[in-house]
Amino acid sequence: MKKFLTAAIAATLAMSSMGVATAAEAQSRGHQEQRHDRRDDRRDDRNDRREERRDDRRDNRSDRREWRQDNRDDRREYRQDQRAYGRWQQSQRRYNAGRYYAPRGYQQRDWSYGQRMPSYYRSNQYVVNDYNRYGLRAPPRGYHYVRSGNDVVLAAIAGGLITAVIAGLFN
After folding, report:
1. Cβ(137)–Cβ(151) under 8 Å?
2. How do residues 7-34 score in pLDDT, each as one tens digit?
3. Which of 54, 167, 52 is nearest to 112 (CA)?
4. Which residue from 18, 30, 88, 123 puts its CA 20 to 30 A from 74's CA?
């Protein structure tokens, strides 16, 4: 009986120590799982923040693109306004500016966009300096108005390339 009792006590002690060990293991496993959960949470938080930053960068990129496009449109509109002289226009009003004398060897002709004015026309005798008086806008830098017969031509100063023709401005 003593043997049986001793065996039972030993078994009980073994079982209880196993239970304590399993409880301790379970508790340590629980702590490890909690640590892993916390790590996973931190990792998820980091990933969320990273994705938010990425989204912010993408948003900023589209803002920059829109800003660049707006500036490009503004420049394009400005250039179109500068070209708004119209390549060929019929004058709405006619002015008296005195008699016209064509350069020697030249006769009156109809000019058109893209042609070149001969150098004779670039002398001060044919350049229209008082463009406000005749209802013309100020010529862009590097251009001037030249009278040819009853017409006025907007031409480059350097090469004489014709940009616009205003037909019938003078009587």
Report:
1. no
2. 778 777 767 666 555 555 656 666 677 7
3. 167
4. 88
